[in-house]
Amino acid sequence: MAMVCLSDFEAYAKKHLPKIAWDFFAAGADDCSTRDENILAYKRIRFRPRMLRDVSEMDIRTKLLGTEISFPVGIAPTGFHQLAWPEGEKSTARAATAMNTCYIASTYSTCTLEEIAAAAPGGFRWFQLYIHRNRAVSKQLVQRAEALGFQGLVLTADLPYTGKRRDDIRNGFCLPPHMKLKNLEGAFEGDDRSEYGLPPNSLDPSVTWNDIYWLRSLTHLPIIIKGILTKEDAELAVRHGVQGIIVSNHGGRQLDGGPATIDALVEVVEAVQGKIEVYLDGGIRKGSDILKALALGAKCVFIGRPALWGLAYKGEEGLQDVLRILQDEFRLSMALAGCASVSEIGRHLVQFSKL
Amino acid sequence: MAMVCLSDFEAYAKKHLPKIAWDFFAAGADDCSTRDENILAYKRIRFRPRMLRDVSEMDIRTKLLGTEISFPVGIAPTGFHQLAWPEGEKSTARAATAMNTCYIASTYSTCTLEEIAAAAPGGFRWFQLYIHRNRAVSKQLVQRAEALGFQGLVLTADLPYTGKRRDDIRNGFCLPPHMKLKNLEGAFEGDDRSEYGLPPNSLDPSVTWNDIYWLRSLTHLPIIIKGILTKEDAELAVRHGVQGIIVSNHGGRQLDGGPATIDALVEVVEAVQGKIEVYLDGGIRKGSDILKALALGAKCVFIGRPALWGLAYKGEEGLQDVLRILQDEFRLSMALAGCASVSEIGRHLVQFSKL
Amino acid sequence: MAMVCLSDFEAYAKKHLPKIAWDFFAAGADDCSTRDENILAYKRIRFRPRMLRDVSEMDIRTKLLGTEISFPVGIAPTGFHQLAWPEGEKSTARAATAMNTCYIASTYSTCTLEEIAAAAPGGFRWFQLYIHRNRAVSKQLVQRAEALGFQGLVLTADLPYTGKRRDDIRNGFCLPPHMKLKNLEGAFEGDDRSEYGLPPNSLDPSVTWNDIYWLRSLTHLPIIIKGILTKEDAELAVRHGVQGIIVSNHGGRQLDGGPATIDALVEVVEAVQGKIEVYLDGGIRKGSDILKALALGAKCVFIGRPALWGLAYKGEEGLQDVLRILQDEFRLSMALAGCASVSEIGRHLVQFSKL
Amino acid sequence: MAMVCLSDFEAYAKKHLPKIAWDFFAAGADDCSTRDENILAYKRIRFRPRMLRDVSEMDIRTKLLGTEISFPVGIAPTGFHQLAWPEGEKSTARAATAMNTCYIASTYSTCTLEEIAAAAPGGFRWFQLYIHRNRAVSKQLVQRAEALGFQGLVLTADLPYTGKRRDDIRNGFCLPPHMKLKNLEGAFEGDDRSEYGLPPNSLDPSVTWNDIYWLRSLTHLPIIIKGILTKEDAELAVRHGVQGIIVSNHGGRQLDGGPATIDALVEVVEAVQGKIEVYLDGGIRKGSDILKALALGAKCVFIGRPALWGLAYKGEEGLQDVLRILQDEFRLSMALAGCASVSEIGRHLVQFSKL
Questions:
Q1: Which residues partner with C75 through β-bridges?
Q2: Which of the residues A352, B218, D114, D209 has an alpha carbon 20 to 30 A from that of A297?
Q3: Which of the residues D16, D220, D240, D250 is marked catalytic?
Q4: Are A222 and A65 in contact (CB under 8 A)?
Q5: A60 lies in a domain?
Q6: Mean pLDDT of chain B
Q7: Where does the FMN hydroxy acid dehydrogenase domain start and stop, copy by copy (chains A, B, C, D) (predicted)?
Q8: Strand, coil or helix: what is C297?
Q9: pLDDT for position A141
């Protein structure tokens, strides 16, 4: 079977992964309406493509907080990559580095940050943080990441509690015995690891904007906040001095009924007024989705599930295939829309369909 | 089979109830478009969730006309609970009391008000009234309810005649011989009980707003009017001195083609201007539906069919399961939307999708 | 099988009629989108029902140009009733008279006007006219109808040529040998009757508004024009002195892509400003559809295909069943919407859904 | 099987063509959403038909840049007609000439321009040009076409690179050995013909508006630019002195996510303000689609896939069948909308549905 577009990787993963793992990656909260809206919303955006512009030399590079990447697609933080491929996050790191883009490693990795760093030396990586009730755990993680050369700290803001994913409950999802949340080994007492590999209630639901100052006190890394969906919170992010926002609804896995990220992007970009960078994850399935997100003001997008499908297909190599397809499709979409470089992409390029 | 969400109870009830009973509970009028709209309308409302708010201590309690309940979900009045479970309304009363919420007992109960009151002493209950042509029957019911400690009188306003429910006609629906409308025994002459357990045309289609004054003369109980769908009627309700409104279309069983209750809620809340409490029933299937209704101004919602599914599953215990699931889902939705108590829920939390 | 609603009659007719006859009655032009829109459009109109109004005495009568009918539903002109029932239009006339409503007999009847008149003496009937190239034919028809006691002349305006109904072409539709367009026997030369029972091109596509004056010169009957869909034409109708308009798209059988009649009704009613009566046909399938049409300004509606389904079921008796169901449903819808008589029905009763 | 409407030809072609050829003709880019939107968009446009206008004499002729054609439908440029019928573009030319309309021959024809011209002497034809990196190739083509009597030069503007058509990639689409891009034989070095019959990257992606002046220097033919979708580009087209615009998205084969052509037509027509002629291709499937396009300002439409279906059915004869059906349907739609000649068609005839 030819791997022509991302749906081919999705079909492969669905067929070859154990059901419990597929269900975990695919899961959305409740009725999965937000998960599905993330994708449907792109179909309501129409291009206004421009013709007869010289697109013989295409430049699809961009910069994330000053660091150049080969094209505006990075790897979003997702957990448990060993569920998709034995080498887990080490493969992810190698693929991202080979393709010269940014990989946001998750707190919930099944490899240590040290293993990740060693797997692909010199790679451009950010570290994603959940704040635990035991703040010492979080502090130690941040400082380990900084010491290992991670270049940004991504704070996930939308998970004070875990969303209700029906299939995981039905499946009684838990990590297979040979997999561990390796970065958190020894961090918690007792043996109960029933909540996605951690003791129940280990995350801190009392985190507020003031904790940005606490994080700032721990590290020199730029702070990017992930999970913002409203202009009010976007303004608060700017006011609290973070360096970037990832517009995200956690792949539709947290509050079902929230907006598609591409819809929320518009009000966040307007609120931020260019003061900090805005990124997006959720629903990116083809090159033209990337172009739409950039046209609406995202500096870069991140892929979650498609990266896992790539890993499930052929590990590092499969993820590179996924990235390469997106890269080719994005370049082609830009050219067909009349843009020779990302700096030519703008709001004029799209309109919202009235449907 | 794990009972994870309300759809699981629905599937169970559909599978295990006699078809004639399932059809009766499921029925909508005519093409069932209003029944189905009640549910679809929630999908067009999007949350605007707020992040990084301290949601470590959640308070989901509210008050109905001053009486505290454990969370803003009560049991709507529905008839014939013995069709779902042998103990009928006694089980309903026990479950509601165990969960510390309000149960609106129907005129069309298959247990007497006395049995209901005795089944769960001290429970918080309202009594739902249809006004009969024989006003003495209605007067006696109201006064019995008040004497038994029911704390509110709910007048159903949308049933001057019974809606046309095609399946009931095809099935020749009637109560099994061992079930009776026990609260109305001896109230009517003759043997014909062909209209849902009553003689034909026993309800009074001449009831008007002036009859509120008549009800007021019969009882000291607060009067809540059920079935209001327009701002004009909401204003009349305020003007006639009732204490509350339940925005309801009778589960889509009366006039097909009317609005979804969540859509009608907006104009009713605006018209009432906070002078009396506004509740809603219809289409509540998960915790986030409750949150949407509260964000649009409902003080509380009531569940009809889901309560019957719970009864059909395991009687009192099954209904508690249903309520507990809704409670957990509601608490989680609130937290994920950034609200630690119901007082923080407001209009800012939702927007209507343009779709 | 119980005959509970009009869909039951439709299913019966589809099952029992010869395919060629069913297809002919069911046919729409081209892709049938206007035919289907006629029905779908009702689903986008929502009631704003009013509660607690005395609906104990219901009056559903109305008047057509001064003549009282039992409820605001008449029989639209459709051709070839013998395809549905052996007695054809004689049965139709009897049913309409028995139910005390108006029957518009078609030029394309398979019974003579004389037979129709004799079948139900004293019935309230209008005559529907196509203008033929041979004007003498049309003149003679109008004068026969007037002499026979028909009380109105309905000019069909939307058929200068016959619409393209694919199934009729595929089926090679033609009348069975024992059926004739009886009112036109002897009117045309030659033997070719290939266009729906007439010689090709016998209708006159040069008819214009000036021909209203010609019709006026032929008869004292009130003239009703059928097939108007725009405000411009509605104004022309008023200016040319007709007595009524039937908003119609010929059941979606002529120009595919035109508006649903219930949508077009709004602009026609506005344009007419109450100067003449406005009626509607197309898409009426239940009592609440009638209520919506009246709320939007129609004085009365006419049913086409449902009348044929009733005939196909049991002739005169079946059509009475259809009318009785509509009558009951209409009365109930009115009551549930809070209207005790047709004079209380108004624009306030409905709103267009944004969907 | 009767060939009643264009869908019948589509079904025939799908059944009888080799899958690889059918897929190539049917292909859209990526998810095919723009391809499908081209058709769906017509369903959202409603006629406002006018009645009682004399339509006994119908005149459906129009003119393209001064040359009369029998009705406002021409043949859009599509490649590889021999995939549909052995005689290829010679049959196409004969059918177009027989029906007295315009045929735009593609650069990617499988017959030479000389063969095309000889097949139907005196036919009205335009030549469609892709500009190659080797400009001498393009120059020679233009001058050959002019010398052979082609009356217009159509520059395709939306293909700096070929769109991503998944099925062609899966099928490994290439021309069968006995077919050649005959007009380009000898034009390129080497043997690689893997990109739709040409060497990879032979088209010039650096073409800009300035190249219009270069084309103008090569030929006296009027220049028509194909692929414009925005008002900005429409204004540029006027400013650069072209004679016509074809609003086109290449049948949805280039940038997926662009607008339906019938939607884009509106803004292009407004921008052009009547200074040059505007045409459209994409999604025309029945006569009423043509009427909608003309009502929105197109001077003429062109058919792509339907022409190929006609060829696949019976070559020249099949294509004439297709054109004749469209002609009959268009004439009928005009008459039913109240227009006796194309000059009576205007914006007043249509409205956009709010759906």
A1: C103, C303
A2: D209
A3: D250
A4: yes
A5: no
A6: 97
A7: 1-355
A8: coil
A9: 97
Res A355: pLDDT: 59
Q: State the CATH number of the domain containing residue C233.
A: 3.20.20.70
Strand partners, B352: B45
Q: Is D48 annotated as a binding residue?
A: no
Assess whether A250 carries a catalytic annotation.
Answer: yes
Q: How many H-runs (helices) and E-runs (strands) does chain C carry?
A: 12, 12
pLDDT for the residue numbered B355: 59
Regions of chain A where pLDDT drops below 70: 355
Q: Which of D338, B124, D156, D77 is nearest to C160 (CA)?
A: D338
Q: In 10 A of CB D298, how many CB atoms?
A: 26
Residue D298 and residue D276 in contact, taking contact as beta carbons nearer than 8 Å: no
Nearest to B32 by CA among B259, B309, B257: B257
Kind plus residue range of the DSSP H or E element containing B111: none
CA distance D317 to D312: 10
Q: Which domain holds residue B168?
A: 6-47+71-345
* Touch criterion met for D and B (3+ Cβ pairs within 8 Å): no
* E strand or H helix at D103: strand D103-105
Q: Which residues of A166-186 are buried (b: 16+ CB within 10 A; e: fewer)?
A: bbbeebebebeeeebbbbbee
Is D236 within 8 Å of A52 when comparing Cβ atoms?
yes
CB-based touch D/C (3+ pairs, under 8 A): yes
The number of distinct structural domains making up chain A is: 1
Pull the structure tokens for residue A159.
């998970």
Q: Return d(Cα D228, Cα D237) in angstroms, integer.
A: 9
Give the pLDDT confidence score for residue A289 in this predicted structure: 98
Residue A56 lies in a domain: no
- A346 among annotated binding-site residues: no
Mean pLDDT (chain C) is 97
pLDDT tens, residue by residue, D293-332: 999 999 999 999 999 999 999 999 999 999 999 999 999 9
The percentage of chain C sitting over the pLDDT mark of 90, rounded to a whole number, equals 93
Q: Which residues of C fall within a CB distance of 8 Å from D288?
A: 30, 255-257
Q: Assess if residue A113 is contained within a domain.
A: yes
pLDDT in tens, B296-311: 999 999 999 999 999 9
Phi and psi at residue B220, in whole multiples of 5°? -90, -5
Residue D323 structure tokens: 């054109």
Chain A residues whose beta carbon lies within 8 Å of the beta carbon of residue B329? 30, 164
Task: Check whether D134 has a pLDDT greater than 90.
Answer: yes
Could you give the maximum distance between any two Cα atoms of chain D, in Å?
66
Of the listed ranges A273-277, B161-165, B197-201, C172-176, the least confidently predicted one is: B197-201
| pLDDT confidence of residue D192 | 86
Report the pLDDT value the prediction gives residue A187, as an integer from 0 to 100: 84
Q: Which residues of C touch B256 (CB under 8 A)?
A: 286, 288
Closest CA to B105 of B132, B69, B130, B84: B130
Place of tokens 């026997």: C185
- Between chain B and chain C, the number of residue pairs with CB atoms below 8 A apart is 85
Closest by Cα among D334, D246, D245, D241 to D295:
D334
pLDDT of residue C100 exceeding 90? yes
Q: Does C253 fall in a domain? A: yes
Structure tokens at A331: 């370049």
Instruction: Give the predicted TM-score (pTM) of the model.
Output: 0.97
Lookup result for tokens 């205007």:
D346
Say how far apart CA A93 and CA A110 lie, in whole Å: 13
ipTM score for this prediction: 0.97
Alpha-carbon gap: D339 to the closest alpha carbon of chain C (Å): 11
Nearest neighbour of C288 by CB, restricted to B228, B257, B259: B257
What is the b/e burial string over B18-48, where b = at least 16 CB atoms within 10 angstroms of the residue's CB? Answer: eebbbbbbbbbbbbbbbbebbbebbebbbbb
Query: Which chain A residue shows the shortest CA-CA distance from D33?
Result: A43
Mean pLDDT of chain D: 97
Q: Tell me which chain A residues have a C-beta less than 8 angstroms from the C-beta of D211.
A: 52
In this structure, is the dihedral angle defined by the CA atoms of residues C290, C293, C296 and C298, taken in order, positive or negative?
Answer: negative
